[in-house]
Structures are given as C-alpha cells and as structure tokens.
Amino acid sequence: MTDVAVDKTDPAGSLSSTEKEPDDLIEEKNQDNPPAAAAEEGEGAAGGVYRYIKDDLFTSEIFKVEIQNLPKYIGFNDLKKFLNKHGVNPHKIKLFSKQMFAFVTFKNQEERDKAMKAVHGMQWKSKVLSVRLAKPKADPILKKRKLEEEVEGGQPGTKRAAGSQEVEENEEEPLNIQIANAVTPLWNVPYEEQLKRKEKEVEGVLQKLTREIGNNNKAMLPWLFVQKEKFNKMCCPLEAIRPSPVLTEYRNKCEFVIGVGADGEDKTVGFRLGKYKGGSCAVVSPSETTHVSSEAKRVVQGFQQFIRANPYAVYSPETYEGHWRQLTVRTSRIKQTMAIVFFNPQKLQEEEIEELKRNLHQYFTEGEGKESGITSLYFVRMGQRTSAGTEDLPCEHVTGEEWIHEELLGLKFRISPHSFFQTNTPAAEVLYSAVGEWAQLDQDSTVLDVCCGTGTIGISLAKRVKKVIGIELCQEAVEDAKANAEANGLTNVEFHCGKAEDVFPTVLNAVVSPNVTAIVDPPRAGLHSKVILAIRRAEHLKRLVYVACNAKAAMNNFIDLCRAPSNRVRGSPFRPVRAMAVDLFPQTMHCETILLFERVDYTKSSNTIPSMIATKKHAILQTTNTHLARLTGQVVHSRRLLGKHIL
Fold this sequence. Notes:
Layout: E1 64-68, H1 76-85, E2 92-95, E3 101-105, H2 109-119, E4 123-124, E5 127-128, E6 130-133, H3 140-152, H4 158-171, H5 175-183, H6 191-216, H7 221-230, E7 238-242, E8 253-259, E9 268-272, E10 283-284, H8 294-308, E11 324-331, E12 337-343, H9 350-365, E13 376-381, E14 396-400, E15 404-408, E16 411-415, H10 425-438, E17 446-450, H11 456-461, E18 467-472, H12 475-487, E19 493-497, H13 500-510, E20 516-520, H14 529-537, E21 541-548, H15 555-562, E22 574-582, E23 592-599, H16 609-646
Parallel strand pairs: 7-22, 12-13, 17-18, 17-20, 18-19, 20-21
Antiparallel strand pairs: 1-3, 1-6, 2-3, 4-5, 8-9, 8-11, 9-10, 11-12, 13-14, 15-16, 21-23, 22-23
Helix pairs in contact: 6-15, 13-14
Binding site for S-adenosyl-L-methionine: 422, 472, 521
Domain RRM: 63-136
InterPro entries: MeTrfase_TrmA_AS, Nucleotide-bd_a/b_plait_sf, RBD_domain_sf, RRM_dom, SAM-dependent_MTases_sf, TRM2_met, TRMT2A_RRM, U5_MeTrfase_fam
C-alpha cells in the first residue's frame, strides 16, 4: 500500500513520470562544492549544466547545503533525528558512507538559512559541525553531453572514454534485450533460481534485524541467542518463499514514458533504457517485454498511432518544452482497461485542450483506437512543479466508465485512477491469504488496516472478524474502499482518510476490543515514526502483521517495534516470530515480505524475556558459586599443606 499517488511496487514495470526531477539529482562523492552562487557563473549560464535552476520551477537543489565534520558511524536516520531535534526540517538528505559530510536540501530559502544558523558551530558527539552553501547538481544529460564533447575535442577525458566504451558495447545488443535487462533484469534466470535469490535477500534482512535488535534491546539477548542457534542467525523462522502463480504478463498497471525512441523514432511510447540522472532518455516499445499484458501493449500501440498523427510534440525533460508526457494503463482480469494520458498544456488555450480531448474521445470510441479496448479514459494536465507538494493531479474524465473493476479472493473491487491496487492480482491473492492466516483472527477480533488503499486486505478479512477499520491517505482510494465494502455486502467495515501518523493514534485509542490486530502495508519508506510510537503505546494491541514491499527500507520500523522502552518509545516491545517472502514481481529482484510481530508479554512467567533473563542470571550465579566453592576448597587445601610443611 502507499501513502502517495504512485505505484509502490517494483520499478521494473512502472517507470516514474517522464519529468526530470532536478530534486532527485544527487551529486556523487567527488562533487565540487563551491557556494551556490558559483552556479550562476560560466556553466550556470542559460545553456549550461545548471540551466534547470533558472526557470520558475521547484527544485530543492537551489536550497542546498553541505554539513561538514560529522561524527563517525552515523546513519541517515541519526542525522535526520538530530536535525529534527533542533528544529531543522530537511527536504532531502544525502549521506555518504565512510565520509564525514552530507548534502541537505530544503524547500525554500527561509528553511535553508534557518538550518545554517542553527547547525553551524553546533557540537555533536564531540564534533563541531560546520555548514556551507553547496552547488546544485549538474543536469545529467547536459553534463554527459559536455564530457562527450570534451573527449571528441581532445580534452582530458580518459575515465569518461572508458565508460563510453562500455556503453557502446551494451548498445550493440538488440533493443529488445536492452529493455529486458532494464525492466526485467532476471528474465533469463530460471524461476527456481530467482526464488532462491529473493529468499536469500530476505534472509540477509532478518540476520541484520537480529543484530539490530540485540544492539537496541539488551533484554532480548538471551532470546536472540536461542533463536539464532535455531534459525541460521535469524531472529525468527523464515518460511519458504511463495511463488507467483503467473510468471508473464502479470502487471495490471504500467506507467509508460513518451519520448524519442532508441531507434530514432519520435513520439515513442514505452520504457526508458536508463534513468535521466544516468544520462539517458531513450525510449523502447514494450512490445517484446514479458511482464506487460497484451491488453496494455494494445493500448500503447493505439495511443502511439494517435500522437504520431497529432501536431503536438513530445515533452522534453531536458528543455521543458513539448506536451506528451506519460501514459498509464491499468487492466483487470475481467477485461476492463483504463488509460490515463498525461499532457503538459504549456501555453495552449483552453479551447485547444478541449479540442484535443474531443479528438481523444473520438479516436478511442469511433476511430482506429477503438480496437485498443479502453473502457475508461482520463486526461491529466501535468506541468512542471512550482512547489514541493506531492498531491495527486486532478484527472479529467474523457470517456467510458469512471472506474475499472477487479475480482480478488471472490470479492469485487472498483479502482480509480490514483488508487493503489497490487500490480499482480493472482500473487496478491497468495499474499493476502497468508496475511489472513498469520493474523490469527476470530469473531471477536478488530483489524486495523493501515495504508489500506482500496480496502483489499481488510475487506478480504471482514467476514471473519468483528470489525475492520481502514486508514488511507488517498481520498479516491477511500471512496473506492467504501464502495467496495458496500458492493460486497459488508457492514462491519469503516474507512478514514488522512495521513496514517495523524489518524492512526486517534483511531487506535478509540478501539476498546480486547483482541486487536494491526495489519500494515505501507509505501517503500515504511511507516511514519509517529505510527510506530502509537503502536508501541497501545498495550492492548498484541499482534502486528507487517507487509513490506522493501524490507531493507522498512528496517527502522522493525527496529523501533523491538527496541527497549525509553522516554521516546513507551510500551512493551514487539518481537518477530515469523517471516516469509511472496513473489509478486517475477523476472525482477523485488518481492513482498511478511513479518509477524507479537508483543512481549511481561505478565507471563514462561517464555518471556524477564524469565529468560532470570534463568540466565540464575545459571551465571550457580556457575559463579561453583567456581567460588572450588576456589575456597583449593585455598583450604593449600593452607593444610602449608601447615604440614611448617611443622
């Protein structure tokens, strides 16, 4: 599930917006960092590698600083917490391993200046910090082009030339192989081997979690010692990975970029061979990719024909000119298809845009595009960002139904343009069935479904429990969830719209059920720390099922659930008792991970941490007493021998 209007699943099948986001362009370790003003000179001219900061567009790269002389061995979260503690609100942080500096960006100049005053000269772990302005990230495409020009002109560029040779070797491969390597990197690996690799990844995550729990909760060490012996250095058993029931054409949602094709064809709809920040904008058709459905490919082909016959140009992330940006296609097993067209209006008149929408309507309902099988068509005006907001863009309904519908576990679900729905429906059934099994529910249970999307998990469990309460950020998804509950004849389900960190504590405190289970399915970065703290405080919540689309990124959530109580983290800790991977993304390295956490119950005498500690202490005391007794005996014996010797 996701708290933002993007697909939280693997990037292999759904590329992000065609927009180049300078905000995401982070400089590498060897970045030169003169003051930001330097960007206004030389290279910073209108045609230079810093051109993107000249327009009235939002990029936090303009408000960037470098923090120097950081303590050793600190991590991203350490720095973020330190800054937040002192009233500093960073937009993005780039921390380099084994380095003593970091780059931090802010949403505006006021916040940047406030941070500089607050942090500069401050002491942290015996280190006095210093802060200075940092130069923005150079535009990757323009930087690459400049380096290539230097090489061609005979200027120093040996390292770049070597890199170019490697790129040229890759470019010798057919385009269908190149795009397969980019979006489905395991396409030529046998499926059993894919599963082994993914299971090994999750095993590594659990082994790291084991070490982190030991570092953050010493009281769990005796329990961890036993668990590690049983489960190959892991804190809990890792069950066999569950495979996807389908291996090809499994994606029900894909986001296609629109740009110049790698074959030179303009107005190509497909996937990029690389990322913009890697210096590549070339697009390849998805026609030979294995994970995209035939229905989606048909829509792509029809839409590509339409824009090639249309006078409007493709949007360029390099120059910010042009119009056509992205095509999102959603499909369902009941043969319904939604297409969402993203278009930059630039300075077009309203009448011109309305005429374009009428042409789209006519093409896909009466013209050649009718064969595409679209049942729902939307149009989105997508200009450049002028602020740091990430709100959903309004969708203008062009033709067909307002939603598509899907069936999952014998239930019916409607899906809006911005609503989250797992991208592999058959594998989602495997995932949700496991979640329901692990939650150990009964008719007295109350389920808290956090980041619930269209309500799939909660609704699939509703008939087995007393009540389901869902929380979701996206308003469209909440409306879908309510409609889905009604369509499936459920009356014991309610949904709340808002940020999980704002809504969850209130909802949780209002629950009076003696049997409460939380099921969380958050976006890649995991749950907000406020949600974790609320879970820890709610002692009546005994069981938590965590569905992680990126277990490594959710590590801090896992640690905070298990760390020792403190002034900040109140309430008894949880501990992981069961884990399993479910493969929702064949041909890629991504998978979903389920972890079952249970509250440590200090009131029971058996199998609890206090009793284990007491047992351990008793064993140590017995050992110590035994050693003392032996030592005393040796001393007495020595005295007797000494006495005899004197006599």
